[in-house]
Amino acid sequence: MPVAAGELGLFAIARTDPDRPAVVDVAGRSVSFAQLAERANQLSHAFRSLGLRPGDCVAAVVHNGLPFFELRLATWQSGLYFTPINHHLAEPEIGYIAENCEADLVVVDAVLTARCGPALDAAGIPQRMRFAVGGSPGWRDYEELFNGQPRTEPPERTAGELMLYTSGTTGRPKGVRRALTGREPQVAPHYLDFMQRLDIEPGRGVHLVLSPLYHAAPGAFAFIGLNFGHTVVLSERANPEQVLQLVQEHRVTSTFTVPTVLHRLLRLPAEVRDRYDTSSLRSVVHAGAPCPVEVKRRCIEWLGPVLTEFYGATEGSVTAVRSEEWLARPGTVGYPLSAAEVQILDEQGEPLPAGEVGAVYFRSGITGIEYFKDPDKTAAARHGELITVGDIGYLDDEGWLFLCDRRTDLILSGGVNIYPAEVEAALLAHPEVADAAVVGVPDEEWGQSVLAIVQPAPDAADGLVERLGEHCRERLAGFKVPRRIELHPNLPRTDTGKLLRRELRAPHWGG
Predict the structure, then answer these.
(1) CA gyration radius for the chain?
(2) Domain named AMP-binding enzyme C-terminal: which ranges (predicted)?
């Protein structure tokens, strides 16, 4: 019998099955649904006592752990926006997001306070609204938020929203903001359809987290899993064999990952893979980067028809596909969800017939999406009610979506988005750089890696490549730093100054 959205939710499960394990952290410590609900309730009361009101924002720079879920749940039932910030980002990047999202309160892991302190100074976050998990000199202890607060649900519960940041081609991250509904928090109906299409059902499942929760998909699958009644098992940088160990130990039923992890699992010797019992798996969801057809086919042969895939972005999920459906149409990223629409448009915004390649525009089940404080970018991405994130693809005769190019300039490395303009801006800040271009090149392990092509200034000295590497490491998160830097006398540009990236990519991609 189908489960209605209103019958789901961590807080409801905490009342009906309080002792069920909700989260198992990276150290193996378990917290029950009732314990997690009480902590979230205490945080909700604390937010109200500190003056936060619906529409305000809480930001967090934390590793995978209980505080992420406590904050996510508390903001969800308090009408607040929650912005998790990538803890790998450099100080200026953290400061920009904290300021742009208009964070009213920020929670940071103690080991990150040295980097985050100056960033929050620059963002204008007052000291009294900064909290450190584990305590740190000059910061308020995160546990202060719980002291003396009731464990009961707060009055006037109203749904909050997640506001994530996704980089843009201008190099500045943009906040994807959804309008608040004003209704009580509950699992949105379109999530029920989305999860069902990925073979994830409500009940006593176990969801394994393999990626940082600040990313859109890992955080969403873990949060929905909790609200479906699943136990969420956290990991941090698990190697391929450890992934299999966790699946066997916890009888994992679902997980989300990226093709790079699938590729690494397949590289394990067959005798190592066969050592572990993976029969509990019902859905191994992947997305975030193109998955080579042969890699996916081999994974299905090994694990069975449990591989599922979806297409979407921070702006919303659009399509889904099960193993059997994919095997009938190798390479597809899925068929539109019931609340979604996909169109392929030409450069004039006109719909293209089946089989013709164009820009992928979509409408997901989520309405009221905007790029926060950037109406121009919002308008540029829209075509009526449809939105695009710059992907190129086509629909077949039956409406199944195939992608040809994830984005024209975007570099996808291990499922993480890297935007060339941001790296180029850092390179161009160096006095010995006259011009710079960044492109993605094939990488057997990561899918793509970052190549920087630099035109030195006339007075550049020897050893520039090493100095630029250090220069980038000071300004960018590690995953954005170029793996390789090449020096060229001139970069190809049009008469109007537009960089001809295709000429730089061609030697590496066979034309």
Answers:
(1) 23
(2) 422-498
What tens digit of pLDDT does each residue of 217-266 get? 999 999 999 999 999 999 988 899 999 999 999 999 999 998 878 878 98
Write out the two tokens for 339.
Answer: 């609340």
Report the candidate in 313, 505, 329 with the shortest Cα–Cα distance to residue 406: 313
pLDDT tens sequence across 173-208 = 899 999 999 999 988 777 888 999 999 999 999 999
405/361 Cα distance (integer angstroms): 14
Cross-strand bridge partners of residue 208: 233, 255
Phi, psi of 397 (to 5 degrees): -65, -25
Answer yes or no: do 174 and 262 share one domain: no
Parent domain of 469: 411-505
Whether residues 422 and 480 share a domain: the answer is yes
Neighbouring CB atoms inside 10 A of 187's CB total: 22
**What distance in Å separates the CA atoms of residue 247 and residue 257, rounded to the nearest whole number?**
13
Alpha carbon distance 154, 150 (integer Å): 9
Instruction: Give the integer Cα–Cα distance in Å for 138 and 132.
Output: 9
First to last CA, the chain: 54
Closest CA to 206 of 147, 170, 246, 239: 246
